[in-house]
Amino acid sequence: MKKILLLSFFTLFLVSCGTTRNTSNFPVTETSKVNLNKKPIKNITVQKSNALTIEEPEEEAFLDSAKENLEAIKHKIISYAKTFEGTRYKFGGTTEAGMDCSGLVCVAFERENISLPRISRDMATKGIPITKDEVEEGDLVFFKTSRRNTINHVGIIVEAIDGEIKFIHSSTSAGVIISSLNEAYWKKAFVSFRRVLEI
User: Fold this and answer.
1) I want to staple 87 with a disulfide (CB 3.0 to 4.6 A). Which of 1, 143, 162, 176 is the partner?
2) Which residues are within 8 A (CB) of 137 and not within 5 positions of it... i.e. 6 or more apart?
3) Mind spelling out the 3-state secondary structure of 170-181?
């Protein structure tokens, strides 16, 4: 009997010790592992922006600056051409001693390091064609003033306001002057407008 009691007591002791050991090693659930072992995830806000929208202001600023520079160049070309007002006409001339129409245009543009062909009909192949509504200061205007069906005269637009277009040129009769395209003679001789200065 003592042996049975002792055996029962010993078995009970072993079972209770095993239970205690097992409680200290309780399995950890997956949720607990995430909470204990992983760093908390920060909230990330994705802003709606990309390379295009970031660069847009810089591109606009660049274009604005380029336009300002272009306008300044046009102004200088026109201002320099005007310094020759009153200069007599001279075929092939490019100086204050005398100049022809394409000579005036070449000299004015070359002052800003822009090279154009020396003959008006060759100038008329440069740049892009534009309409009367698109004309701006610094554009070129071409004419046929002889019976031959070819461009033989050119001028630089100095003003385009309210439908009136004025241009500086060297005419055979009056030398370097500013004329209006509304004048009957020039209206009849008109051929085209070309833009040789653009961004």
Assistant:
1) 176
2) 74, 75, 78, 157, 158, 159, 160
3) EECCCEEEEEEC
Tens digit of pLDDT for each residue in 44-103? 444 444 444 445 567 888 888 888 999 999 999 999 999 999 999 999 999 999 999 999
Residue 169 among the catalytic residues = yes
The residue with tokens 């200069």 is 87
- Identify the residue whose tokens are 């380029």: 66
175 bridge partner residues: 171
Chain position carrying tokens 């009957």: 184
| Catalytic-role residue among 17, 75, 101, 106 | 101
Tokens representing 89 are 């006409």
Query: Tokens representing 114?
Result: 């822009």
Taking the C-alpha atoms of residue 110 and residue 45, their distance in angstroms, rounded to an integer, is 56
Q: Which has the closest alpha carbon to 155: 199, 112, 186, 188?
A: 186
- Report field, pTM of the whole predicted structure over 0.90: no
Residue with tokens 């660049």: 62
Structure tokens at 104: 């005036």
Look up residue 155 and give its two tokens: 């001028």
